[in-house]
Specification:
The protein is α/β, with parallel strands linked by helices and about 230 residues long. The protein has helices spanning about 15-25, 35-45, 60-70, 90-95, 110-120, 155-170, 175, 190-205, and strands spanning about 5-10, 30-35, 50-55, 80-85, 105, 135-140, 140-145, 150-155, 180-185, 210-215, 220-225. The strands form 3 sheets. It has a 5-stranded parallel β-sheet, sandwiched between helices. Strands 6-7-8 form a 3-stranded antiparallel β-sheet, with no helix packed on it.
Length: about 230
Amino acid sequence: MSPKPTILIVDDDPHYRAALQAALYAHYRVRVTDSLSGMVEMLAAYVNPPALIILDWFYEHADAYAALTWMRFGAYHTVPVLIVTASSTIEQIRTRLADLGVLVLPKTISFNDLQTFIARLVQPDSQRVSLASLFEISGNSVTRVEAPFPTVELPPAQLALFQILLEYTEPVSAATLASRLVVYHADVVKDRVIVKRIHALRPQVEPLGITIGNRRGMGYYIQLTPLCRVP
């Protein structure tokens, strides 16, 4: 029997933390902490990173945002993050965190529904797909396979660059595409000519529901428009 996936819960509400831990205990190895500093210490102690981090968005926003940025562009960029929040401004939070690719859900969501999202995020590697497999390329035409986006025509040079970007990304779960970034680091694209070509490519692929960007030179990311709505 394969070991249970590890989930790290970061929440300063002991009642919610205990209830969530009890709800997940049967299917996951659950670890908990009540602070961002505790999360950093626990991550540093792991030989293998957790399969998922569930983070309460009730901390000082600047600190939580810095912690997420540290994870996204460091050794933990492959770990999906699920934000739960009791805030009534959830749409503003989603907008604020859009370039960090986390899934944001309200704390009012039922544990049954929450576990559905968690199960999708914690998929085994055997069920993951490459981004390249989500597109059909015929000649210079690019079509996104699983959604009704328009077909885009790309000049040969831009098409070749687009294919390179897709191939450099790691395999991800279908749920991951709707919840977090697919990041490749700056050392892949140090050439300034390639960087300029990437910027030129961005508006060309937006009709496919793709966002290409970078954060302060730390790394480029690709994010696909989610295909499912979340509460």
